[in-house]
Amino acid sequence: MPPHLSRRRRRQRECAQARGAQCACAERRATWPAAARKCPGKRPPHRRSEPPGSDVRLLRGAAPASTMLKKFDKKDEESAVAKAAPPVSCGSRTLAFVHSPARVFNETPINPRKCAHILTKILYLINQGEHLGTTEATEAFFAMTKLFQSNDPTLRRMCYLTIKEMSCIAEDVIIVTSRQVPGGRAALCPLFCSLTKDMTGKEDNYRGPAVRALCQITDSTMLQAIERYMKQAIVDKVPSVSSSALVSSLHLLKCSFDVVKRWVNEAQEAASSDNIMVQYHALGLLYHVRKNDRLAVNKMLSKFTRHGLKSPFAYCMMIRVASKQLEEEDGSRDSPLFDFIESCLRNKHEMVVYEAASAIVNLPGCSAKELAPAVSVLQLFCSSPKAALRYAAVRTLNKVAMKHPSAVTACNLDLENLVTDSNRSIATLAITTLLKTGSESSIDRLMKQISSFMSEISDEFKVVVVQAISALCQKYPRKHAVLMNFLFTMLREEGGFEYKRAIVDCIISIIEENAESKETGLSHLCEFIEDCEFTVLATRILHLLGQEGPKTNNPSKYIRFIYNRVVLEHEEVRAGAVSALAKFGAQNEEMLPSILVLLKRCVMDDDNEVRDRATFYLNVLEQKQKALNAGYILNGLTVSIPGLERALQQYTLEPSEKPFDLKSVPLATTPMAEQRMETTPISAVRQPEKVAATRQEIFQEQLAAVPEFHGLGPLFKSSSEPVALTESETEYVIRCTKHTFTEHMVFQFDCTNTLNDQTLENVTVQMEPTEAYEVLCYVPARTLPYNQPGTCYTLVALPREDPTAVACTFSCMMKFTVKDCDPTTGETDEEGYEDEYVLEDLEVTVADHIQKVMKLNFEAAWDEVGDEFEKEETFTLSTIKTLEEAVGNIVKFLGMHPCERSDRVPDNKNTHTLLLAGVFRGGHDVLVRSRLLLLDTVTMQVTARSSEELPVDIILASVG
Amino acid sequence: MQRPEAWPRPHPGEGAAAAQAGGPAPPVGAGEPSGLRLQEPSLYTIKAVFILDNDGRRLLAKYYDDTFPSMKEQMVFEKNVFNKTSRTESEIAFFGGMTIVYKSSIDLFLYVVGSSHENELMLMSVLTCLFESLSHMLRKNVEKRWLLENMDGAFLVLDEIVDGGVILESDPQQVIQKVNFRADDSSLTEQSVTQVLQSAKEQIKWSLLK
């Protein structure tokens, strides 16, 4: 055969072989369909690492697993990569595990390449999220001990890595079983020994990784065995060993704090190392060990800051520690800690400089003067060529601008340059910072600039922009027209839910702030719900329309929009629309007939809820009674929904003749209106509300568990914040929560004993009322060991003879039996002695008897309650000089909820009407209208209405 | 047996839940009103490091805390991050309440993730170190194909740079030195010596320029 032909033939043959190999793959896949299907598109690193120039030759004839792959040559792979299609997977699991790794590992002599190859595959599989079979993984894990016989460095390093990786991935599988199965622990031993040997061996390159692998599989009992080696490793002269030991110790702190604590001296020594990373790790470990000991931390700080550090990382760490100390001290800025942070602004590493600047910016209560050097450093960073640095600088400046807009004004020019930055995150942050610092005149220009790139930035940053605009609206109310227009343009564009919600929130807050923007705002929102994909937003806007629409000049124009929802939307929105319609009908006589017609159509709706609502509202409206309208349409339920659910369930379980009493249901602790966040941070506020709602439930359950408190009836109100009756740094820390019932009050004292050589027993708080309250019983806390909070209660009856005298001061005294105990062993003496401890006085005010309630429509509620028990009085508030102050004081004093935003006093007015709503204990609505007049001092006319006489008397008596 | 990965707690408002909703998480960092650094001073700097190919598929990933406890959440996060970052040529982004620094090279995307309170430059130093080390190991061919062929090396490099979320080493030269000791591969060591010298020169030049 002529040579050229033969060559061509050979190539053809090779190609055929290659194809054949692929077919083989396909066949294999067919043989193990499950295994192969599990990882489609997964790409195993099917060749051991060969430097690009070299060949696969080494693998040929090595193992069956690799022979199969040898034909999978580069051409195929390139095309696969180029096509970006998942390269043909030969069933990565198959490769790693069908030829049991344990078997390959146990071959003698060890084939290092093959084994390392398998380890790489295992790692890759773990990395891709494959689940390893229990048996094969355990087998492979323990078979790795064998591999330590080989001296191949790569193999050894891969072993360490695999041990680390498998120990946490399959922690429960391998380690736990090895602990439970007899001898399992012993199986871990050889591995342990091999690692210990490497850790103390001659090969420096092995030692560091060996330390880390070893610590990963060590638990606190095994740690004792290697403690000596660890101590040596920490002070080792090879930096990588020392670093590894320090970092591993840091990881170990979590489970074996006490052991690691003993290595502090070694860590201290390492902290003076010349190597930058060792120093960083040593300082980090020292801080983690000592962080609860303020003095030690201070000492450490002063020691290392005085001598200066080598590592920029260590500087950053120290700056953080220093700023934390400063924050806790909460004191002056003259301290050496602040000087240290400030001196870091002149460090040669940008990382340190930035860290210091950011630390100063984040310090609470920093003055403009203290901020100045930090700001000027950040200003320099703004023109850095590094995007990360610019980003960091602008982000920090943005934070400064929130508190000290004036401090950032100097950077305005630099910030304006960043508006056109190619990194949109930087540009957005620059804009929002400018919005905060800019003057009223620059708003128009900035808005124009923002709109030019609004479409290019992510939703997350759009939300930031919206928040900035929202803040701007509050600052410059006169600019609301420009801003509002901008918001509506944004609202019309594409965007996610969070973004749209932020916009809607912002618009709603503008509407509430500025009466003149209401009409435009509402009509724009109407337009928005015409095509709104978010149910939550649509229902919210409908609710707002129902509330605000009827009060506008031309309410009828909103009806079309609302009724369109009934026709076009799905059930939740339809239900919302029906409620909104009913609100129009309830407040506007002229429109009532047409509303009735519309509601009648809704009665035919497909959905139960919509139909029910329509029928209900229709019937209420047809009565044409204002009180009914107010109670059932305009102001909804004020009870807490979970409470109602529980009460109803209770009622159905114990059927009785009595009808269900809505007054027995606890009221919603947080009025619904507070959902409408009053300030800018739109996302942050939701969380605590849920907590608050469940807080009262928790109390209710706790109190119900105390036998003495049976028969008190439902819990009416719990005071929101516990009152501290002691200074925070005293022997005993007592905090009191007041619980109000219909006829009684329970004081809950949360006590903590901070003396470690005492155990208190039989703790009660004796109370001496100044008014006609009567102490009924004390429920003691049986024992109060060191640092474990305990609770005792005091039950008092409300005054019967003079029911208006609810405001009262109690003098409190804690009585208990002290038993000394040994702080180390915790043993308590048998004998104890009686002791007393005087606490601060506790005040009970009117606010404790009234629960806040939101009335969406105060006037309707006012009419509903009627003037049967109306009283009016006029007072002069001689000490109060402004209306805001007066409003704030009244709201706080009465503990009632300001309605219809009457707690905001418009500027430049000397009269104001404050509307307050609440529920008095026992479930009687109380409404207060107080007219304020400002001359030199504030004169106040209070009108109170309630469904009972008592609450009115109490309120007037307490104000007077 | 300890799991150091479980040590650093995820910060409220960030992480899986936040990122899963397609990104629009509460913008903890950028818009937050609270000026306080809520974070305890800690060595646990890095939340995750991952390398994706140009389709957003994972080639290598390490997560160091339980912000994303399950593989599924991790994958979703990676996908979102990829979608957000792959088209733009910037190097830093804010996503799901976390700061992400990234770098692309031919058909690879390298990401380093840290908390929003973290010093961005620290994250950047890790990213740079990772890239330089890989670049050296792959002889400047930082692309998917060579990475896959040298996966073991990549694992080792990452292991030397970050350990359980703590920055172990930030100097690429040191990393290379610790990983690179293939005694049997003379050509590589030879070349690596010259390369080490080369980049050492660059380093010196760079530091002088600065």
Detailed description of the structure:
- The complex is a heterodimer of chains A (960) and B (210).
- By secondary structure, chain A is an alpha+beta fold.
- Among the domains of chain A are: 1-41, no CATH class; 711-844, Immunoglobulin-like (Sandwich); 850-959, TATA-Binding Protein, CATH 3.30.310.
- Chain A is 56% helix and 12% strand.
- In chain A, the strands form 3 sheets. In chain A, strands 1, 2, 3, 4, 6 and 8 form a 6-stranded antiparallel beta sheet that branches.
- In chain A, a hairpin with a 3-residue loop joins strand 16 and strand 17 (938-946).
- In chain B, the strands form 2 sheets. Chain B has a 5-stranded antiparallel beta sheet with strand order 2-1-5-4-3, sandwiched between helices.
- Chain B is built from 7 helices and 7 strands, in the order H-E-E-H-E-E-E-H-H-H-E-E-H-H.
- Chain B is globular.
- The N and C termini of chain B lie far apart (47 Å).
- In chain B, helix 3 (120-137) packs across helix 6 (172-179) and helix 5 crosses helix 6.
- Chain B has helices at 16-20, 71-85, 120-137, 144-149, 151-161, 172-179, 186-209, and strands spanning 46-53, 58-63, 92-95, 98-105, 108-115, 162-163, 166-167.
- In chain B, 41% of the residues lie in helices and 18% in strands.
- Chains A and B meet through helix 4, helix 7, helix 9, helix 12 and helix 14 of A and strand 2, helix 2, strand 3, helix 3 and helix 4 of B.
